[in-house]
Write a structure and sequence with these properties.
single chain; 73% helix; 4 domains; Serine Threonine Protein Phosphatase 5, Tetratricopeptide repeat; disordered N terminus; mainly alpha
Length: 348
């Protein structure tokens, strides 16, 4: 098991990644409609679902599969609705409908579909899908119950079993049951010891336990497997900070932000450390990059405003205040901050 490896090497001092995305193919421009139709038809897969008795449903599904392959999810949804109108309890239709809704980040609707699928096609895969939707919705205990139910009816090995064990481990961590988390992480590890995502989870578990040597080993292994795993770099930064090596911690956190400017944890750490270590400009740039890449985050905007004020960049702070108030004119804390800045400018 992983723990045995960690113990041996500890003196050297660890919806929605649930599956591969369809590959986006290059766009081809057609001038001949007949050729376009012929090429589209050539891509249509064979539908092997034996329970599809209506040929119209099979045809809708075949075309929806091609559209989903090319990420045309709204168009695929139209066909899947038509298929559902013909046969509302067909498992193939319901499964594709749920997958399409997941791709469109319509998680609450996907949850309803997966609940129905689990009722009409009771088995491991359907129960796993329903449990994962509950998991993504933050309904941890319900998700855990459904994962256990899925495992109870498992008869053969499944490609989704790794994700089942991993997610169960995550739930146990959030519930504070670290021994339960370790048990299910180890089960997942036996199935895929090269998962950088799982190694990050192991590292986070050891941070919760206060064993920073083990967590450092896990995060390092995750980075070795996948140098682009920004969460692993954040984990390394937190552990090196705990050890007092701030130079290395800063290098790790900057790497995480370079890889993923939308990593909120990394940016928030940079803001806190920037204020503490007198590296305000680094923290400001990280926050500005983050806020430019997300639709809105009022809490992080407030952090940026305070950093700008601390750096003496009052005009920039006022611009950020106005931007927040455009989103939320009733934000009391930002409105009060605006009044204080305006008053101080008048006095000056």
């Amino acid at each position: 098991m992983l723990e045995n490896q960690i113990v041996q090497k500890s003196s050297e001092i660890s919806g929605d990644q649930s599956g591969p995305e369809f590959v986006q193919e290059s766009t081809k421009i057609y001038f001949d409609p007949q050729q376009a139709i012929a090429d589209f038809d050539a891509e249509l897969p064979e539908v092997k679902e034996e329970r599809i008795t209506d040929p119209r449903v099979a045809n809708f599904i075949r075309h929806a599969q091609v559209l989903m392959k090319h990420r045309e999810y709204p168009l695929a949804m139209n066909l899947l609705r038509e298929a559902s109108n013909k046969d509302s309890k067909n498992p193939a239709t319901l499964n594709m409908l749920a997958n399409c809704l997941d791709k469109m980040s319509r998680n609450s609707e996907a949850l309803i579909v997966r609940k129905t699928l689990a009722q009409v096609d009771y088995g491991f895969e359907s129960l796993h899908g329903y449990a994962t939707s509950l998991y993504k919705s933050g309904r941890d205990q319900e998700a855990l119950d459904k994962y256990f139910e899925a495992l109870a009816v498992l008869t053969d090995e499944s490609d989704t079993l790794f994700e089942t064990y991993k997610n169960m481990g995550n739930i146990f961590v959030r519930q504070g049951d670290f021994d339960g988390a370790e048990e299910y992480y180890n089960k997942a590890y036996t199935m895929n010891p090269q998962s950088d995502v799982l190694l990050v989870n192991f590292g986070t578990l050891e941070v919760q336990r206060g064993d920073y040597d083990k967590s450092l080993y896990c995060f390092r292994k995750a980075v070795e497997i996948n140098p682009e795993n920004d969460k692993a770099w954040v984990g390394l930064a937190m552990v090196h900070s705990q050890f007092g090596d701030m130079e290395l911690a800063w290098a790790n956190i900057e790497t995480a932000i370079d890889i993923n400017p939308q990593n909120r944890t990394a940016v928030h750490l940079a803001a806190n450390w920037g204020l503490r270590d007198g590296k305000l400009q680094k923290a400001i740039e990280a926050l500005q990059g983050y806020l430019a890449s997300v639709e809105e985050d009022e809490d992080m905007s407030l952090v940026l405003i305070n950093l700008l004020c601390s750096a003496g960049q009052v005009e920039q702070a006022m611009l950020e205040i106005e931007r927040v108030l455009l989103w939320n004119p009733d934000h009391k804390e930002v409105r009060n901050l605006k009044k204080k800045i305006t008053a101080s400018q008048k006095v000056a």
